[in-house]
Write a structure and sequence with these properties.
mainly alpha, GPCR_Rhodpsn, G protein-coupled receptor activity, G-protein coupled receptors family 1 profile domain-containing protein, 433 residues
């Protein structure tokens, strides 16, 4: 037990220093009881000496024999048992809806030539990231719920799942940002659009999105390990105990990594998207207001305005047909199509950010209330609920495509009819045999 002895020696030395500085003049009865001592020191966790003592206390407890660990260290509160089956059913329903919907979205876009557009390429990429997020994320959360936060004994489990979830989330955000930028360029600066966004460049941009999303995801994933909190709330890696979470502490490589991630992946994209859609809507309204119709006189669309007959001479000298210019109160089809696409994209984007907002709020609550959340039922309920909202956002997207896009709805219906008719023919062939 050399490691335990070394840790205990360091603890004694550190505690002697704390008694001479932080706890100088404190009642000896408080220092003789470990529980009251931790409660007293918790208010001094900003002092490096106390932070070191908290870490050594945690290490010494978990380096003792396993029988002591199991009986004296708690994993924290657990969900009421009757809640677990309810959450499981909800997660499975949302997961199945999202899985089928996003899979159909990808297949339908690939198989339908009329859906091969820049916007739909981005939507296919978004559907792939949503699909993979549901597969990995729902599985991770169900395991987390049923095992009370204790991950299975698989090497690299925390790093792998965290990397995947971060990758698919970042890919979704970057795809939405790129899609917004593409629509912004197409509507507000149409003459430059073709030079910046052609089919080949859009595909390369989608590949680049996934590469860029991978870089921070791998870093974040490597920072996720099995951790346990000390009495200061800092989370330290433990080889065989604890929950999957981000390693935190005064010696962490990036002490404000969560805040930085939230600003880069949530706040800045949201500001950019809001700006783009405000400009897009303003441009579309301006186009509708200034559009005029040039109608030749004598056609059925000339509002039956009567003009005096022209003589043969005057008609021969007339180089151009006489036209009237009227205000167009109904936008042309191209503008209506633009507005319909923008309406769908605004809905998808709004739902995405609304569903992800509670996740970031939950992380902020946990980040700045470490010691309270470790024993709080409220924080315990927050995690599965905020995770579920992310999967709800992913599951709703295919539903929005069908409700708000006639082309999508037609393509979906055609694909399903083709699949059903093909299966009926195969069944009839087998029945004859």
């Amino acid at each position: 037990m050399p490691q335990v002895n070394d840790t205990m020696t360091l603890m004694e030395v550190t505690f002697d220093s704390i008694k001479k500085t932080v706890l100088k003049g404190t009642d000896p009865m408080i220092m003789s009881n470990m529980t009251t001592l931790m409660e007293t020191l918790r208010s001094h966790c900003d002092i490096p000496l106390v932070q070191t003592f908290a870490k050594l206390t945690l290490e010494s407890a978990w380096n003792l024999p396993s029988s002591y660990n199991a009986s004296n260290i708690s994993h924290g509160p657990s969900l009421p048992f009757f809640i677990i089956p309810i959450l499981t059913i909800i997660f499975i329903i949302v997961g199945c809806v999202g899985l089928v919907g996003n899979l159909l979205t990808v297949v339908v876009i690939c198989k339908t030539a009329s859906l091969h557009s820049h916007t739909n390429y981005f939507l296919a990429s978004l559907a792939i990231s949503d699909l993979l997020l549901i597969v990995i994320g729902v599985s991770f959360d169900l395991i987390n719920i049923w095992r009370n936060g204790n991950p299975p004994p698989i090497n690299g489990y925390c790093a792998f799942t965290s990397t995947c979830i971060s990758l698919f989330t970042f890919a979704s955000i970057l795809t939405i940002v790129s899609l917004t930028a593409e629509r912004f360029q197409a509507i507000c600066y149409p003459f430059n659009h073709r030079a910046l966004f052609d089919g080949r460049k859009v595909m390369w941009l989608i590949y680049l999105i996934w590469i860029i999303a991978t870089i921070p995801s791998v870093y974040i994933g490597l920072m996720f390990k099995r951790v346990l909190p000390d009495f200061c709330g800092f989370k330290h890696p433990m080889e065989h105990f604890g929950t999957c979470d981000l390693v935190t502490g005064p010696d962490a490589p990036l002490p404000y990594s969560f805040e930085l991630t939230m600003i880069i992946t949530f706040v800045l994209p949201l500001i950019f998207i809001i700006y783009c859609y405000i400009r897009i809507l303003a441009t579309l309204n301006e186009m509708s207001a200034t559009t005029t119709v040039h109608t030749p006189v004598g056609t059925s669309n000339s509002d039956s305005i009567q003009f005096p007959r022209l003589t043969a001479t005057s008609s021969q000298n007339q180089s151009f047909p006489l036209t009237i210019h009227t205000r167009n109160f109904q936008p042309p089809r191209s503008q209506q199509a633009h507005k319909m696409v923008i309406k769908m994209l605004v809905t998808v984007t709004s739902v995405f950010f609304i569903c992800y907002l509670p996740h970031h709020i939950q992380r902020l609550i946990v980040q700045y209330n470490k010691t309270v959340c470790d024993s709080s039922q409220f924080c315990l309920f927050l995690y599965p609920i905020t995770g579920l909202l992310q999967y709800v956002s992913a599951a709703l997207n295919p539903i929005f495509y069908n409700l708000m896009s006639v082309r999508f709805r037609t393509a979906f219906n055609k694909f399903i009819k083709d699949v059903l008719s093909k299966s009926d023919k195969e069944y009839s062939t087998l029945a004859r045999l």
